[in-house]
Amino acid sequence: MNDVCNDKIITHITRRNGENCVLMSEEEYMSMCETLYLFGNPANARHLEKSLQEAEEGKFVQIDL
């Protein structure tokens, strides 16, 4: 479990007589839930996709805090 938490490894657990499972850190799980929530609204998803595209194209301003 330390590897899962420290190295952000998602582990697939295959069981013989039951459903398979996935083990991940709580931090990874919360991050995934937030991403699904943010992309769950179509208008918000379009805005985020546009922002990601602009960042990939270098169309951003870096601000030092």
Which consecutive residue ranges, at least 5 long each, have pLDDT under 50?
Answer: none
- Strand and helix order: HEEHH
* Silhouette: elongated
Helix content: 40-55%
Question: Could you give a short account of the major beta sheet?
Answer: 2 strands, antiparallel
Instruction: Please give the count of helices.
Output: 3
Kindly report the oligomeric state of this protein.
Answer: single chain
Distance between the termini: 35 Å
- What class do helices, strands and sheet pairing give? mainly alpha
Into which percentage range does the β-strand content fall? 5-15%
Question: How many runs of DSSP E, i.e. beta strands?
Answer: 2
How are strands sequenced across the largest beta sheet? 1-2
Give the C-alpha Rg: 17 Å
Mean pLDDT: 94
Attribute tags:
65 residues, 3 helices, elongated, mainly alpha, 9% strand, Antitoxin_Phd/YefM, two-stranded antiparallel ribbon, single chain
Short description:
With 65 residues, this protein is mainly alpha-helical. Helices cover 54% and strands 9% of the residues.
Describe it for me?
The structure is a single chain. 54% of the residues lie in helices and 9% in strands. It is mainly alpha-helical. The protein has a domain at 25-57. The mean pLDDT is 94.
